[in-house]
Write a structure and sequence with these properties.
Number of helices: 10
Distance between the termini: 98 Å
Strand content: 5-15%
Largest sheet: 6 strands, mixed
Oligomer: single chain
CATH topology of the largest domain: Glutaredoxin
CATH class of the largest domain: Alpha Beta
Shape: globular
Number of strands: 6
Radius of gyration: 30 Å
Length: about 250
């Protein structure tokens, strides 16, 4: 009887010890996981911080220069329209040069359209200056439209985005706009300077606002596709593929 009791106590002690060891091992595993998780979070924070620094350095309003030379090379341009004049479909982009989302779309969605259907002659594209962000959008639009008279409109838009500052912060000065025109390669700066004060530009800007409202647009950037089947408003598509699908249907 005594031997059986001793064996039971030994078994109980052994089970208790095994339980303690298992708990200790589990606690150690949890600590390792916490450390690994903290390390992963720290690494993610570092990656995000680096990405932010790179992004900010790339969009610094003091720097810039055209990023579209290769993108636009060899594509005909007349006024505000880029692409083969005989293309059966026209893509309309309604944007404000102060709009940061328009800047992002220029580098992604619009760039994909230009390198794809526009370059292939399937569509042409027009950037419609829709001045809705603030008073500074007006001189910016006038300056771009003046550059269009020398067929440097798309270069001007691209260089403006490359140097875009904070909305309505006062950065859009005569000096700033002249620098953009120079970067865009506007051939005759004296003519450009006169053209941006042409009285007729007021009507062009007002017409853009009316057409945007007719299409039901409420913000920038907004897109429409114009072709044999009429004009189809798309709003703000998430990708170039959505616009390309509309091009295929409209043509």
């Amino acid at each position: 009887m005594a031997n059986r009791d001793r064996d039971q106590r030994k078994a109980q002690l052994r089970e208790a010890r095994l339980e303690q060891e298992a708990e200790a091992a589990a606690a150690e595993r949890r600590q390792r996981m916490v450390k690994l998780g903290a390390a992963a979070v720290f690494a993610a924070i570092v990656i995000i911080a680096v990405a932010i620094v790179i992004s900010q350095s790339g969009s610094d309003s003091g720097g810039g220069g055209s990023t579209s030379a290769a993108l636009l090379k060899g594509i005909p341009q007349k006024g505000t329209v880029l692409g083969d004049p005989a293309a059966p479909v026209k893509v309309l982009e309604y944007g404000d040069l102060q709009c940061p989302v328009c800047k992002e779309y220029s580098a992604t969605v619009v760039a994909d359209l230009i390198s794809g259907p526009v370059r292939r002659g399937e569509a042409k594209i027009e950037f419609v200056n829709w001045v809705i962000i603030g008073p500074q959008s007006v001189p910016a639009a006038r300056a771009a439209l003046a550059a269009a008279k020398q067929n440097r409109y798309w270069q001007f838009v691209d260089d403006f985005y490359a140097n875009q500052g904070t909305e309505n912060s006062g950065y859009i000065t005569d000096s700033f706009l002249t620098d953009i025109a120079e970067q865009a390669g506007v051939p005759d700066l004296d003519k450009w300077n006169r053209d941006r004060d042409l009285p007729g530009l007021k009507a062009v800007i007002a017409a853009a606002d009316r057409s945007a409202q007719r299409l039901g647009f409420t913000g920038t950037p907004s897109f429409a596709v114009q072709g044999a089947n009429g004009t189809k408003p798309l709003g703000t598509p998430r990708s170039a593929a959505e616009i390309e699908a509309a091009i295929a249907q409209g043509g």
